[in-house]
Amino acid sequence: MLQSQFFAKTKKETPKEAQAISHQYLVRADFVEQTISGVYRFLPLGFRVLKNIENIIREEMVKLGAQEVYLPALQDKKLWTESGRWKTFDPPLFKLKDRHQKEMALGSTHEEEMVDIVRKRINSYQDLPFSLFQIQSKFRNEMRSTGGLLRTREFWMKDLYSFHATFEDLTNFYQKVKKSYFSIFKRCGLNVFCVEAVSGTIGGKISNEFMMVSEVGEDKILICKKCGWAANIEKTGQIKKCPQCQNSLEEKKAIEVGHIFQLGTEYSSKMGANFTTRDGKKKPIIMGCYGIGVPRLMATIVEVHHDQKGIIWPKEVAPFDIHLIPIITNKKEKKIAEKIYLDLQNSGFKVLYDDREDKSTGEKFADCDLIGIPIRIIISQKTLKQNCLELKERAKKEPVLVKIKELSKFLK
User: Fold this and answer.
1) How many Å apart are CA 175 and CA 184, to the nearest integer?
2) Fewer CB in a 10 Å sphere around the end CB: N or C, the chain?
3) Domains of the chain: total
């Protein structure tokens, strides 16, 4: 992609309301912009990152055997009344009426929708287990929205729902989802803790949150470094000793990047989602649900991967693989630079080529560091004399010289 044609305008000034580093850098680098409180536009750079994260999540969900669906954002009041959550859900639902005065809500979560689908199609234990997931917009009527993408009113979420005949099967699948979540977060460059958590208005007796330690986090967790036990303080209170090994606990601020629940029959029993057992009895379907907020995960990555100059994107989520910057003075050098750009693209790399003629070398380097693409390649008269290019990884301080003819091989 030619940077002169790419729809992105970086900013030198930090937004006054931006306290979190992720908020500052994502706005300054033109990944996102706020419209109203808690609502953001994802611009081309931001959308590319969002889609990369989405693809990682989708790959891991498919590995679990889950099937993808897409459910409506507008939800019938009737379903929420059946579950008993129309008046009790927290934060309160965004509610509206159509021109026929029929009440509905913007989807904050999709347990009711999923149960309605399943109860029409599942009859026997032979139909179980299975799991469905979607990646779709959610709407939360938050009292306040803070930290940029860390707490918003509209956001993409991956929500997975599993359906089982026995609690043993739910427990086994729950453990598989845990492993899948650790894989997702690792691919996004995060080393998270899985902690015991409060289920809140989603429900279920057992739930776990995936927490990334960060000073901007709104949650507080307790960690035992001896045995690995961890919990949200909201779940345990301010205990001093680990309940598993009696070792002292360490308190940390953290960002919740995922939450999983063993719902049991919380919804199926209320909404009549039953199956016939092997011995002919009718029982409510046993459920689990598993969520990841995609924009919050994006912001958390930036909170972990940055320096004083800008973002440092992990390879799998970066908007481009390579930021190619020519520092050249004549047509011959320009043709060489354009050929390198085309060769890199033909080798399968996503390249942002800074062909802008109205920017100084210093401005180009500053934008490069702010945007945070993993690899910067400089083409200059000095390096071309040696048939080389200067390659620098964003996460490292020192560049290296690479022969032009060996570049693709070196990068792979």
Assistant:
1) 14
2) C
3) 2
